[in-house]
Amino acid sequence: MNEVICDISDVYLSVLKDDGTYLTKKETIRWVIDDYLIGRLIFSIHKHILRFNVASEGLVTPTGYWYLPDFQDGKVVMPLAKVMRWIYEESGMSQTGFHSLQPKVVEEVFETDRRLNNAQNWIKGNGLPSLSSLMMNFSRPCEGGTCGKAWICPSQGAIPLPVHDNSPNYGLFWRL
């Protein structure tokens, strides 16, 4: 994930340095996204999936074009919402169950409620999270070594990817 973000950042910085327009700010942003960033995002995701040989690792990834928006019932379903739903499905937990694991102390009740509210807002498309907020929201339920019955978190610091192996357990592995 980090490599994809770096690729997008490199393209953006290159466009800032090498290209200029007389368009309005809104039109310029649309132009950069349409002409540069979307194509690079798609290419970069596929490049790094091959580069890290994800298939040989047995990693389970969302299928199809999960990184592109969909249209369902006249509404746009953003990639973040699709990935979040996929994580809940792979974990075998509901959104509420995933983000509202049993708090150990009373002070954590507010934090678990906040994580759940943030996740609900993000999945509805009400605002975009910062990368640090997104990582915190999905890593916190796994702190302490377990997340639900069968999820383990060997380390922290990146976006979670559920992994299947031949055992009945699932592991939550982290890739930088």
Task: Summarize the structure in words.
The chain has 176 residues and is mainly α. It has 2 domains: 1-51, no CATH class; 52-175, no CATH class. Helices cover 53% and strands 10% of the residues. The chain has 7 helices and 4 strands. It has helices spanning 2-18, 25-51, 54-57, 79-91, 95-99, 107-124, 131-139, and strands at residues 70-72, 75-77, 159-164, 170-175. The chain has a two-stranded antiparallel ribbon with strand order 1-2. It has a two-stranded antiparallel ribbon with strand order 3-4. Helix 1 runs antiparallel to helix 2 (25-51) and helix 4 (79-91) crosses helix 6. It is globular and about 55 Å long.
**What does the average pLDDT come to?**
74
| Strand composition percent | 5-15%
Strand tally: 4
Q: Structural class of the helices, strands and pairings? A: mainly alpha
Put simply, the count of helices is 7
**How far apart are the termini?**
6 Å
Provide the succession of SSEs. Answer: HHHEEHHHHEE
Runs in which pLDDT lies below 50 for 5 or more consecutive residues are 148-176
For the biggest sheet, the summary is: 2 strands, antiparallel
The figure for the number of domains is 2
* Estimated radius of gyration: 18 Å
- By oligomeric state, this entry counts as single chain
Percent of residues in helical segments? 40-55%
**How is the largest sheet built, in terms of strand order?**
1-2
Shape: globular
